[in-house]
Amino acid sequence: MRLALLFVLILLPFWRAGYKGAKRLTRLAAVWLYRQMLSKLARTLPIEAGVTIVFAPHQDDETLGCGGLIAHKRYEGLPVHVVFITDGSASHPGHPQIGPVEMAARRCAEAREALAILGVETNAMHFLDAADGTLAWLEPSSRETLITRIGRLVDQLQPAEIFVPCCPDGSTEHDAVFNLVRESLQRTHRRPTVWQYPIWSWWNPFLLLKHLFQAGRYYRHPLEDYHLIKERAMTRYRSQLQPLDPWKEPVIPPELQQVFHGRDEYFFHFDLNPPENAAPSPPGPVS
Q1: Is residue 13 part of a domain?
Q2: Are 163 and 57 in contact (CB under 8 A)?
Q3: pLDDT of residue 240
Q4: 174: buried, middle or exposed (CB in 10 Å: 19+, 13-18, 0-12)?
Q5: Domain-located, residue 238
Q6: Contact residues for 256 (Cβ-Cβ < 8 A; gap 6+)
Q7: pTM attached to this predicted model
Q8: Residue range of the domain that includes 251
Q9: Is residue 5 part of a domain?
Q10: Parallel/antiparallel/unpaired status of strands 193-197 and 264-270
Q11: Is the predicted pLDDT of residue 275 greater than 80, yes or no?
Q12: Which has the minimum average pLDDT: 132-136, 212-216, 250-254, 255-259?
C-alpha cells in the first residue's frame, strides 16, 4: 500500500499537467489504493429496516453505485424506491443516429429492466424527467418545482434511509441532485439517514482523497452473492456500458466500469446539519 501511495504522489504532477498516460495510471493506482484503505477502515453497513429511497441523477447510477445493496434489501423483503431525477437524454450529445428523445426512451427502458432484476417493483420506480444536462443551471421556478416534487415523495414514502450521489462527484448533474435532495430534506421535519455513493469520484484521485478524509463515517457493503445480481442488472445498461455505432468508445470508460464489478460497495454518511457541508464541483460528465 505504501508503494502504491508513493506511486500516486509521483504521478499527481503529471496528472495536473494533463498527460493522458499518467492520468490513466494515476487513476488506476488511486482507485486500487483507495479500495485498499476503505476495505481496512470502513465498517460494515447495517441493513436497516424501513423504506429506502435511492436518488439517481441518471438511469444507471443507482445500479452502479447501489445495485448490490438494492438487491440485498429486496431479498430481505425491505421496500426500496428508486427516483430518477433526469431523463438521461444528454448522454450522447451529437450522436449521428440517436437523438435526445430516443436516448431518453432507451434509458428509461433499460432502467426498468435493470431494476426488475434487482427486485424493485414497478410502482417503486419513479421518473421525474428533468431535462438532462440542465440541473446545475435551472431557472429558480423550475428548481423550486423539482425540490417540491422530491419533498412530496419523501413525505409520502417516509424513508428511513436515503442514498444520493457524493458531492462533489465530478459531475454537475450528480452534485445538483445531491443539493436538490438536501434542500428538500431541510425543508421538512424528517431526518432519515443520508448516505452518499461515489460514481465519477472513482475517476478522480483528488475527489477520492477528499471523500476519504472529510467523511466522518464510511461503510462498506459486502456484496457476497448479490454481486451476480448486480452484474446482471448492469448488463441492461447497454447504451452506457457499450459503444453505440458509429462511436467506438462507451460513455463510461471500461476502466471505470471495472470499479463497479468489485465485491464491495462503499457509502459515506452525510449529516444534514450544517447545510454548508456540500459545495458544487467544477463541470464534469453529465451521464
Answers
A1: no
A2: no
A3: 97
A4: buried
A5: yes
A6: 200, 202, 203
A7: 0.88
A8: 42-277
A9: no
A10: antiparallel
A11: no
A12: 212-216
CATH number for the domain harbouring residue 155? 3.40.50.10320
Assigned C-alpha cell, 20 = 493522458
Q: Which helix (H) or strand (E) holds 44?
A: strand 43-44
How far is it, in rounded angstroms, from Cα 4 to Cα 109? 41
d(CA 248, CA 220): 34
Question: 276: left (phi > 0), else alpha (psi -120 to 50), else beta?
Answer: alpha
Distance of CA 77 to the CA centre of its chain: 23
Is residue 28 within 8 A of residue 257, CB to CB? The reply is no
Which band of pLDDT confidence, cut at 50, 70 and 90, is reported for residue 11? low
Q: Are strands 43-44 and 52-56 parallel, antiparallel or unpaired?
A: unpaired
Task: Say if residues 281 and 255 touch (Cβ distance below 8 Å).
Answer: no
pLDDT class of 37 with cuts at 50, 70, 90: confident
Helix (H) or strand (E) holding 147: helix 140-157
Higher pLDDT, 106 or 15: 106
Q: β-strand 218-222 against 264-270: which pairing, if any?
A: antiparallel
- Strand order of the β-sheet with 218-222 is 43-44, 218-222, 264-270, 193-197, 161-165, 52-56, 80-86, 125-130
Confidence (pLDDT) at 29: 77
Domain count, the chain: 1
In a domain, 8, yes or no: no
Confidence of residue 211 (pLDDT cuts 50, 70, 90): confident
Per the DSSP assignment, residues forming a β-bridge with 270 are: 194
- Cell triple for residue 190? 424528517
